[in-house]
Fold this sequence. Notes:
Blueprint lengths: L14 H12 L4 H24 L7 E10 L2 E10 L3 E8 L3 E4 L4 E2 L7 E2 L2 H17 L5 E8 L4 E4 L7 E2 L1 H11 L8 H13 L31 E4 L2 E4 L5 E3 H15 L7 H8 L5 H11 L1 E3 L6 E3 L5
Helix pairs in contact: 1-2, 7-8
The structure holds zinc ion.
Amino acid sequence: MWDMPPPYKARSESLILMVLRILNKRMKLTEDEQRYYQNQEKGFQGEVQFDILTEKLKRSSYILNDLQLESNKSSFQLDSSLIFQDTYSLFDVKNFEGEYVYGDEYFKTISGRDFQNPLDQLKRSKLLLSQLLQTLGSKLTVEAYVIFINPQFTLYQTPPDLPFILPTKLDSFMKKLDQGPSRLNDSHKTLADKLISLHQTVPPYTHLPSYEYDQLRKGITCKKCLSFSVSVQGKRVICHSCGFEEMVTSAVLRMVGEFSLLFPDRKITTNIIHEWCRVGISKKTISRTLGKYLMVKGVHQWTYYEWKVDK
Ligand SMILES: [Zn+2]
């Protein structure tokens, strides 16, 4: 029996979502930015929900979560893919909530908050992936579905025969997906490895709000509840909102992580991290932490630090 291995390519938050999370606590997002951030967050949660279902499948497959690929100079993104013996199943996961009426271009609500019909996007991804598989010499048939993962989603007047899996059909769909031939060989593994190697880790930062260092709120935030209300006691950072305690070293490294994610081009120095963390941690402690966990570059007052490659 297939013993449920972890996904061949695991999912992690996109860079965009990670940056938005940091910005959301350090600056005031506009209403549009806030909505965009919430959508990203919700989309990610939906994908994680679907991962739980794909990982339960007993039929052998390579699970590739979140691939950003290019074919014919067009980029496309696959939320979730399963490589089976004869088929490549790709899934676009939507975490829509509420009642909608189907429309060719938009799903409409009474409140007027419409969503674009994901069908065109799905067709595009399917076509681009088929072309890519062909150039890679794979003969797998591509099947593509939109998964509506949220049980609170209803879509009225959905035409039949669309590759849409509504919440009420999800259970039986997953059962059906679990049937069928399941012998994998080297060619499947080669294909999975090739797609992972083609995955573009840095998508364009096109939708990010603009931000400047000076406008962002400085300080260490609690790892658990994100509060700025923390203080340093000995070797620990204590949160006054939820009581969570974290070692100073770990909190400092977490803050350096946020800093370098927001400002990939800026040099990491003791002074800047001291200012970024703000609470009572001495420059000595910060420089010792940076020196221990990052690579030291430059000398004396020109010292700065870089993440080791296996960050
Ligand atoms: Zn807290």
